[in-house]
Amino acid sequence: MGEVRLPDEIRPVMENGIPAQVGTCSADGTPNATDISRVYYVDSEHLALSNQFFSKTIRNIRENPRACVNLNDLEAFTCWVVHLEFDRSETDGPIFDAMDMQIEAIASMTGMSNVFKLKAADIYRVTSVEKIEYGPAS
Amino acid sequence: MAKKQPTAEDLAAELDQKSAEIRILQRVSSAINATLDLEEIYGIVLGTMDEIFGFHHSLILLLDESGETLTVVASRGYEGQTLGGQVRVGTGLIGVVAKKRRLMRLSNLGSQRGYIAAIRKQMEEAGRSGELEEAAPVPGLPNVESQIGIPLLIKDNLIGVFSVESAEQKMFSDREETLVAIVANQAASAIHNARLYRAEEQRRQELAELNETLEDRVRARTAELERANRELRDMQTQLVQTEKMASLGMLVAGVAHEINTPIGAIAANTDLVRRATEIVRQRIEDKGSLAELAGDSRLRQAVETLRQASQTEQLACERVTSIVKSLRNFARLDESEEKLVDLHEGIESTLTLLRHELKKGVEVVKHYGDLPQVLCFPSQLNQVFMNLLNNAISATGGKGTITITTARDGDGVVLRFADTGGGISPQNLKRIFDPGFTTKGVGVGTGLGLSICYRIIQHHQGTIEVSSEVDKGTEFTLRLPIQPH
Looking at chain B, which residue has its C-alpha nearest residue A110? Predict the structure, then answer.
């Protein structure tokens, strides 16, 4: 299988700050979907999800390393569906620092400093990317 | 997924845009660096953001001395007062940018707020309100959607944060972030330089003011010290004069007696002379010839009486003259300037004035050496001699010996006044030159005599030392330069 690369046009969508949805599945096949505040661009083949307090998502990933993320572009009325496979967790380094900084800023300005704390930056390898048009134009 | 290839027109347009941006940045950079006025720098930076790049809301915040708070020093595009608004380091995008000292760009903050509000609600419903805090208010747009915060750094030291905000649901692009960062970096240097210049100017002004006031203060203080010094000198002069008059006062009785004796002799002779003269006159009248007068033994006796009376009166007059001369010599009231004098003369005059005290039973032994004339204030040194000799007489209780020894010693002279009195105890000896110290009892001594002697000798660049042994006696040693500098 050839390496899947993220298209350039997806990057602004990842950074637009609009919450994304992440779907995972436990070992016994029970699905789970939840909102996630940010998805971080790592490189053209990887992205990172913040490991904060989504204990069910994290538990599922430990059992079944596959996940799916919906990235919403409300201006273009599109949704990018990105399939992922868990690669590694980072608790320091530039990716962790960048994620931690943004979470700290948002948490402090919303009175959530005690709640929003980055435990780790979970790095995922992209296995497929699909763009779905769902707006009036579709 | 095929990526669209840019056309030549696209590339040309992009090139044009980048060239234009570089020109703008160059102009902005020149303008910022051409001034050292902080307000002007703020105006150029915020104006550039607004009018050239279309970022209508921007803030410049500077870090305070504590390093914990940022204060808005310039703003553009806000309704109401944002100047002076504060952000704690670590709070909000601006505070976190300051804390991490790294650029941060956030977008669609409204969505984030909505998302977070949902989580807050869930937590409140789950009874976890205790974990939530009140949102910290920060200066800027209340409905901010996108924001770039850039730390203002000078050699890794944070001086503030530059923030650009937008209420539109759009995201600042990489290009815009780069433009803002370049201007912010220029601004950091310019602000730093202007603050250094302002601080330097302030320091210079403070220094100038300090110098000005310092001169005034020094002048005032000098005048004050001069006045105090004058008063002190007057007081010292007065004190010396008082002590001198006290010494003279003590002498008056003795001196009066000394003068009274020869005056008494002259007075006694007056009757004798009158009677002898009468005899001579009568004998001359009674006798007819010189031969008869020559043989008149009564006449010869009268003439002899007159001769003796004349001799006595001459001695008496010499004695009075000597005493008066000694008094004048002692006081030397007409000599206020330094002059070369024979110190033996001063000692002798003092001894003459003290004769009445001495003759009760004090023997004065003199070992005078060959002294050169000494440049001094003679009346002051006479006062020292008087004080030391008076003390010596008191110490002997009127019976004993005072030995005065003088000698030349290199460029100076040494004068020693030793007595065979009761001596001074070691504890009193330590305080003997202290002003006010006396062992003579209340009303007898002022306690200033030796203190003044000390000062007089010091004034003559000399030294005064004392050695004493209880029941054996005391010796004062004066050392004086012949020619003080």
Answer: B135
